[in-house]
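Thread: quick sanity check before group meeting

JM: Hey all, I'm pulling together slides for Thursday and realized we never actually wrote out the predicted structure for the chain we discussed last week. Dropping the sequence here so it's in one place. If anyone has concerns about the input, flag it before I start.
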Amino acid sequence: MRFGDVIIVLAVIFVVMMIIIPLPSFLLDVLLTFNISLSLIILLTTMYIKESLDFSIFPSLLLLTTLLRLSLNISSTRLILRDAYAGKVIQTFGNFVVGGNPVIGFIIFIIIAIIQFIVITRGAERVAEVAARFTLDAMPGKQMAVDADLNAGLINDTEAKERRKKIQREADFYGAMDGASKFVKGDAIVGIIIIIVNIIGGLIVGVVMKGYDFSTAINTYTLLTVGDGLVTQIPALLISTATGIIVTRAASESNLGKDVYKQLLSQPIVLFIAAGLLVVLGFVPGLPKLANFLMAGLFAYVGYSLRQAKLQIEKEENIKSREPKTEDIKRPESVLSLLQVETIELEFGYNIIPLVDVNQGGDLSDRIVMIRRQCALELGIIVPMIRLRDNIQLKPGEYVIKIKGIEVARGELMVDHYLAMAPDGAMEKIEGIPTKEPAFGLPALWITERDRERAEMLGYTVVDPSSIIATHLSEIIKRHAHEILTRQDVQILIDNIKESHSALIDELIPKLMTIGEIQKVLVNLLKENISIRDLVTILETLADYSRITKDIDLLTEYVRQSLCRYISKKYAPNGRMDVITLDSSLEKLLSESIHTSEHGSYIALEPSITQKIFNNLSKEVERIVGLGIQPIVLTAPLTRLYFKRLTSQLIPDLVVLSYNEILPSIEVHARGIVKI
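JM (edit): ok, ran it. Output follows.
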């Protein structure tokens, strides 16, 4: 093996020299035997490889074997014309294989040459040409797929490099095969020409130069020439077959023999049908009964054996699947699946199953898809998959919504009823079972299908059970969006805009802020129901102000001010905003009570003052709500965050805005003042 490369070089030189230097007959016998053996080895190798690149040297080997056959043709021709003898191999093929009849031998040779030239060689050439063209056309797409997998983190740099190298090697291989297949085609043509030249030259040499009579000359030289042609054409036929196999070989996990056995004999029923047809043909007059019946019996036996083996495998698999996997239970890794906590879960009683089951006409799954879409549009977040599961421990019409495995909401439905909510000032009442709407706690009635049309005519809002669950689930997701958003979700959102805003991402992450810090800012926004869909504006603001401060709360306030157009449109859709303001003395007190520590800023007030603020705020909020107006508190930018935190326990949904978060074009009307 150490001198293998030198041996190959010397062998190539020797093959070329064979064209010039005469060879003795015994050496020609050795080389002809070697040629047949080498062709057989190449054919078997192509059958045992799993993909074409496993035999990437084949195009070069095809050229060398073609050159070897041509050299042997020239050497044998020289011996035939000179000595009327070219060794035992050719003599044996001439006498034994063709039965000593030159006409039969010549016809067999012509048939082999035609099969090789027209069927195998031309087909392999066409396949190689098409494969080369398709491989080259597919290169850009394959390389883009590698880059996409690398960017997504599915593969590392080393794997990406190997895959790119393999794509290039495939293109080179099929391009080389496209050209190398021409060698086989040329070899077939030359073989026919050489045998004709040998016969004509043999007659001239035998009759004119050696004095043979015409009959002896044509018998001797035609027999030797046909034997020579068969000796060289049989290896050529093997090589042509190997060429066809390798260019038609698709990538597989096993060799050709296993693939043929697995795919051709995968359906025992096919063998049974074939056996039945052969039995029918056996009764047709004139056809050989013994051959048909023997073949039918063989196919039936093979089909029966395969069917029994298939049934045995299925039986063993069923037994294994039923056996308790005690070893897996004992392993520490088996409990890892139990540690997985679903982000959002919806559990329900058995009466609600028809609402979820598509086969029973349930549309709740489709509504959940729309909820995820709605949350993406309204809040800019990616809601994870919502796990739906039935729970026999719940009441038949009860459902529970869980966030990270903890129950956050519960409701109960009457699946065969509708929920009717009365409009403000409704005069006429309808019959129903009193209840409360689960999402907002509004008074409602359960009514039957019979009263539905009448309730809608009276102005009632009538909702079906699926819509009740969907609405409740949607509100819970919006209320807990800040808990759902994870660092991984933020990374996905950033990757989504990286292609169009690569300069922004490269400047901000990780030089100025980490993914975790950005996530905290986004969580602060979602806590107050501020959409993060305009992520570009948010990141632009963070890139501007993160150089000045690293305080997450302060950065959040800067972002809110950058989103003033969105906030103004959200809370003043008609260009008018009714607000509750803070007394100047209260704002001064709040600003003076702000303290800063290494853990962040906080506000410290005396309990009595805090209680006064709560009392006055509650009165103003109740009064505003009584007027049918959404309560909004307007404060100075410095105190907005701290006033929101102060009142979050008393009124969690209270909207607190600063002056900088409202566009100048908005008409602000003060409807109340909070004093101390």
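AS: nice. The chain has a mean pLDDT of 79. The longest helix spans residues 157-209.
JM: adding both to the slides.
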